[in-house]
Amino acid sequence: MQWTTLVATILGATIAMGSTVLVEVRKDRREASGEWRRNKRELYGAYLATLAQVRSELQLLVLNRSLPDSERIVVARQSFARCYELRYQLEVFAPSQVVEPALVYFRSVRRLRDATGEGLEDGTEECAHIFREVMNALANVRTAMRLDMGTDALATD
């Protein structure tokens, strides 16, 4: 009789301890997953915001014909320089299905920078082509980021 009580107590304690450990492990995983998701959301947002701001600054440079070509190149490069840090972070932390379209977007904005520095003129076919390329790349990277984050699935829940 004493053995069964002891075995039942040990078995109950083992089940309780196992349940507690299982609950804590699941809680830790859920918290880590949530933190990872927040970090990616911040990184993706910062990447898109920075490149959009640079794109706007370059567009203003294209429209500003009073700036000498030598200054235009410097201003375009200074504007674009802040994109590199976020690019490298994205390459390290994002999955490849996001990195590839993000790099295409990055390179298209860089081509816009180069063309702006070389005297790209508003209203030309070349200007329209470059901006179309940039906007298409932006749409593709935005779609990849939404898929990675599961944004559309979250909106329907």
Characterization of this structure:
The chain is mostly helical and 157 residues long. It has a single domain, classed as Up-down Bundle (Four Helix Bundle (Hemerythrin (Met), subunit A)). 89% of the residues lie in helices and 0% in strands. The chain contains 6 helices and no strands. Helix 2 packs antiparallel against helix 4. The longest helix is centred in the first third of the chain and has 62 residues.
Q: What is the number of helices?
A: 6
Oligomer: single chain
**How many beta-strand runs?**
0
**How would you characterize the largest beta sheet?**
none
Categorize the overall geometry.
Answer: rod-shaped
- Our measurement of the CA-to-CA distance between the termini, rounded to an integer number of angstroms, reads 54 Å
| Main CATH class | Mainly Alpha
Summary keywords:
mainly alpha, 157 residues
Briefly summarize what is shown.
The chain is built from six helices and no strands. The chain is mostly helical and 157 residues long.
